[in-house]
Structures
1.
Amino acid sequence: MTQRAFPILFITATRIGDAVLSSGLIRFLADQIPNARFTIVSGPLAAPLFAHVPGLDRVIVMEKGKGKGHWFKLWNQVRHKKWGLVVDLRGSGTALFLRREKRAIWKKSPDILHKVIDAARVLKLEGDPPAPHLYITPEVQALADQLLATRRGEPEGPILAVGPASNWVGKIWPIERFAQTAQQLLGPGGPLEGGRLMILGGPGDERMVEELRMASARGRYIDLTGKVDLLTAYAALKRADLFIGNDSGLMHIAAAAGIPTIGLFGPSDERRYGPWGAWTKAVRGPRSFEQFLAVDPDLSQAIRHMSDLPVTTVVKAAKALLAEVKAAKEAAPIEESAEAPIEATPEDAGLEPDLQPVLEDVAEPEVDTPVLEDAAPSSAHADEGRDPG
């Protein structure tokens, strides 16, 4: 017997990084509710991340307008359907004005929580939170593999991926230090000796990469800056051996790809925004996040805050992480044929047992919570309201 579709309205972040960090909830819901049908609401830069979500009905691109106009426009687009579940990670209160069976609305926590944990709490999930996950098709992976293919007779070798850009100059590590780091890791005696350098970035970042190209021995680099979309970048990163990058959406995409990831931090809080995953490290210089706040309270000044993070610190962290990964793989080699997960059948219950505590209405918003309004950025990432990255 065919199950009735379970429509889910999932309102996610505007910024790429936040959208990636909360993406594990979509996978969780898709796994737990076999008949789920998703309508995903996102900002224009993050929206392409969700193109291949299973059970996707629609991605609504919501661009911020004057006042609360964008929220009323969204409400008008989704008000005609009765939703099985509305998940609102923006804390807007939109769910209160929609016909729905259940709702889960983000509310700001007084605790310092990583964004992955913060997102899991919206669905009242206990234990390990759902890790970030992006969906791609075999065609997307094939395109990425084609872009990474070497010339005839040229050895492949390991791949060091770097993300030298960010959405604010204060979070950008000097480009020459990326070049020096790449030389030490890819050069003679380095842990990725003889490998290739993969450079990633968005449109407009091309001018940054010339020095990085020169850092790769005999032109062994793959420059994808401004040339691929987010999901193709994700697919390409799945083939890399290590990623090093500034705190940015690309850093979170690399971590979601499951590769060893080094995130470079200064005027942003790794307790909330560090790369998530078993093989990730957040690296910072001698100053704490609070010390950056003391000199730049709004985290908005055009100051190169990252200049005190030395190359030696990053190289040391990269070597240590690669050594950890190597030791773990040698101790417990990955099996060639893992047992396939058991898929839910139409005869299964419409809702998996683990989801029962999730689909309960959260408490009504506090009286002082503005309805149909974006929640204010946390001070730990005060630049989150600017251009997603």
2.
Amino acid sequence: MCGGAPGRLSRSGGCGRIAVSMADNDGSSPTSRPRSRRSHIVRLGVFAGFLLGMFYLVAVARVIDVEEMRRAVSATGPAAPLTYVVVSAVLGALFVPGSILAAGSGMLFGPVLGIFVTLGAAVGTAVVASRIGRRAGRDSARALLGTKRADSIDALIERRGLWAVVGQRFIPGISDALASYAFGAFGVPLWQMAIGSFIGSAPRAFAYTALGASIKNLSSPLAYSAIAVWCVSAVVGAFAARRGYQRWRGHARRGRDSGMPDPDREAGTC
């Protein structure tokens, strides 16, 4: 017992020193949490910088010769469709624009087989990119969000992750590869990535593949159909993005009004 008579003051002082020593050695020093948080921020920053660098080199500077890749694939003969799926999946994860890859599929294999090749490549890109994103950023993202907030996001992904992937594929102007890296970092399961990418990429896969197949006759009904499908999917994607943003704002506003505790603030006051 640390409390007691004055004559046992020395023992009490010893207990006090033991308590202080235990408090110092419990691993929760004020500098450990900021240092750990800083390391996660640096890790995510390095990963984001790498992705931006790859995006610039491949999508802007065009350091990869897609035409040469296409000729090499066509030289594989009967294995060309499967080869193109694998090569396009990797190139898509490296930020080669999916529209170029899909158009190449239409030029090589025609509108029917080309659509399935394009969809296979789109699913492959989603799986590869999300897998890398999960390995590189999942732990850091959870650490920065906090346990409660990360668990709430996991529950939301379990309910709506599939349709989030589908909706993103409809939104024009967003890199599918970049979104797949982000989905992976937030823990979207691979099966949701694969199925969501297959469903959401279907309209644009048809549009770009059909345009590639009819590149020599852009006044054909197939070309007009491709343009119409692209326009409709872009409008649907814009409305879906707007509705999703409004729902997110409403959810955040209800959370503030209900006095939902901030996990980061609670962690800092423990």
3.
Amino acid sequence: MSRSGVKERAARGARVPEPDKEKAMATAEILSIDRTTNDRPTNDRPANWGAPDSCMIATEDLWKTYDMGSEQQVHALQGVNLRIRRNEYVAIMGPSGSGKSTLMNLIGCLDSPSKGQYWLNGQLVSELDDDELARIRNKEIGFVFQTFNLLARATSLHNVELPLIYAGIGGMERIERAKAALASVGMESRMSHKPNELSGGQRQRVAIARALVNKPAILLADEPTGNLDSQTGKEIMALFDRLHAEGNTIVLVTHEHDVAEYAHRIIYIKDGVVARDEVKER
């Protein structure tokens, strides 16, 4: 299955197939990771390290290893220790091959670690099976992708309803919640429009409404402005600012420094470890 196909199923909480998933989701990391170990940063725990169940996201000694055959292995993540608290706004940055996309896949429960533990909203999810992970994706994580991943033949309203359908929410409640989510991102006048009748910025707003509709524990955004012009990108990032101010926990994965600057904390990934973790002055 292609990477876009995996993301599309993840957005609606569906089960992600196993075969070749790991290679499809992190090809760039596998092909270009520098295997040198000199001057490699450590994953030491900071002094204010909190208990896993006190944080929204917590990882301990998180590894992801890919078996490339002929007894060759690539360690895309190497013992990552991380804490993200409730209502934080965090950007994860790193060059191609750094491991940031692999980390995003693990945080988003699109993949499972080879070793280590991961807690999401107080629940240990690193040992869950595929069906349980699908439930977590639908209930706890709101995905926002660069390519929007909207159903082409469905209206904005129906696109936003989809996670609620998979969650088993009844018809009337589902419609009201989808309308409220669209209104929260300024799309109440475009509910009956299909994606080809919307601009790029409007499509991304619909995608954000879909991410919000299940009231998830975190919003996980992968290059959310990548397909937008600069002015529309600023409008979308202003929307993320407002959503954070309203109490949402946001994790933003990007390679663009100007986008990462909107976050209140920037975590830099390099060679599969946390190279720097900077909290910005506000």
